Amino acid sequence: MPTSTSESASRIPEAVFDARRLFESGATRPLAARVASLKALRAMITENRTAFETALWSDLHKSAGEAELTEISVVLAEIKHTLRHIRSWARPRRGPVPAILWPARARLVSEPLGVVLVIAPWNYPVQLLLDPLVGVLASGNTAVLKPSEFAPATSTLITRLTPRYFPDGAVRSVEGGIPETTELLAQRFDHIVFTGGGTVGRIVMRAAAEHLTPVTLELGGKSPVWFDDDARLHQAARRLAWAKFTNAGQTCVAPDYVMTTPDRVPALVEALKSAITDLWGSDPRAGRDYGRIVNERQFDRLVSLLDGVDVVIGGEHNRADRYIAPTVVSVPASGGCPLIGPDAAHPVMREEIFGPILPVVAVSSAEQAVEVINGWDKPLALYVFTSSARTRRLFEQNTSSGAVVHDAGLVHVAATGLPFGGVGASGIGAYHGTYSWRAFSHLKPVLHKPHSPDTLRLAQPPFTGRKQGLATRLMRHS
Q1: How far apart are CA 432 and CA 181, in angstroms?
Q2: Which of 175, 218, 351, 352 is catalytic?
Q3: What's the pLDDT tens digit per position in 333-358?
Q4: How far is CA 414 from the centre of its chain?
Q5: Are the C-beta atoms of residues 355 and 254 closer than 8 Å to each other?
Q6: I need a labelling partner for 94 at 20 to 30 A (CA). Which of 26, 48, 206, 407 fits?
């Protein structure tokens, strides 16, 4: 819900105009100003750490430990990494000049894009709003933030803190729902970052096309798992359970379903049962470390996915508490239908689950698993638990995904030096570290061609045979 510190829909054009005016004044371009903005963002987080933890508990029942691990520390690590490298990223680099243009010199200069809109989802309302913001500010832009209305406590906190830590207006936060988002998308921005589902991602992309605005879209999808590592069964099950059921499964890169051979299914299910108990106790609802579903609409959607499947672990749920236990289901062969995608036989396999339900699917081999993955949209992440180097290469070389992680899940998102992004239906573009710098900057070539000697005469008429021959030889050496 909009608050008194939020920009109402009617004031959004003015807010965007003010952000652009500040950018065009040049105030955010100097390196010192960029460093100051990053330090202000760091102070906003560290000086209000408890308030962020409280807001995340209110919105998603995230414990302080999980909030620190998956939200706060991720952004602080991104800021630290960026402050360490920003001077080298900002330094102009020498550019190559072909022989045909000699004598000449060129350099590549990074310049900010302008005003960047960041639209965040509700599942990681701090990380997925402020992590892109780090790159936006480092690149010298101004920013307009749209926190999710489905994480109201976090949204209100960020909107309240933003003017205090960015009094110049370099960062502005707009609260609200569909009307405010629609009005924001009607404005002209120089880049838009959106994290969420494909349906809204298409709306964002259509709106961006009206102004020819580039986009970074992080859209998720059904991130698959392959398992055949019998020697490390229990360690793999623990890592798999942690990756799936953190934040009650509401993670865009959470393992969505596990494929393994039929003979391995019983042992894997038992190992997952032990891992869930070790991590969250025999009754996860009673502890403080297990999350809740964000709202009743999502709760009802997830519970409906349990119809017609064999629940082998968990399944308990309580609507009043928005609690769904860590749940593992067995999905039988689909009888001629695709295993995943909109035409799959079982609803739990038709779309991204985005909750604490983990299907275990029996397939004949790793090769069949590759066929299943390639039969639908490219996933945001692919997780492979195997001791076989050949199997690892099989998945790396024969599938396409935003990332491949061996013997773990989720962890690549915390690697500030690696790009985070999807491919195809799972996303467009990437950010984190230097990839954020590339996403939110324009690398501008600056070329200087001296008047003397005037070698450009070779490219100008009249074209004599001697001139053409010399120009051709120079082109061959370019």
Answers
A1: 25
A2: 218
A3: 767 788 999 999 999 999 999 999 99
A4: 11
A5: no
A6: 26
443-471: per-residue pLDDT in tens? 999 999 999 998 888 777 887 877 778 77
Query: CB under 8 Å to 123, separation ≥6 — which residues?
Result: 60, 247, 250, 251, 252, 294, 354
Specify whether 218 is catalytic.
yes
Q: Distance (Å, rounded) from C-alpha 376 to C-alpha 387? A: 26
- Beta pairing class for 420-421 and 430-431: antiparallel
Whether the CB-CB separation of 15 and 174 falls below 8 Å is answered with yes
E-strand ranges in 261-391 read 310-313, 317-318, 323-324, 327-331, 357-362, 382-385
Q: Where are the alpha helices (DSSP H) in 113-232?
A: 127-138, 152-165, 178-185, 198-210
Residue labelled with tokens 């480092």: 138
Backbone angles phi and psi of 46, in degrees to 5:
-70, -35
Q: Is the distance from CB of 250 to CB of 355 less than 8 angstroms?
A: yes
* Phi and psi at residue 425, to the nearest 5°: -70, -15
Annotated catalytic residue, options 7, 78, 252, 351: 252
Contacts of 346 (CB under 8 A, 6+ apart): 308, 309, 331, 334, 359
No. of helices (H) and no. of strands (E), the chain? 16, 20
- The answer to whether 252 is a known catalytic residue is yes
Longest pairwise C-alpha distance within the chain: 88
Give the angle 12-33-195 at the CA atoms, nearest 5°: 45
Distance CA 309, CA 375 (A): 22
Dist CA 215 CA 194 (whole Å): 8
Q: What's the pTM value of the predicted model, to 2 decimals?
A: 0.93
Cis amide linkage into residue 167, ω under 30° from 0: no
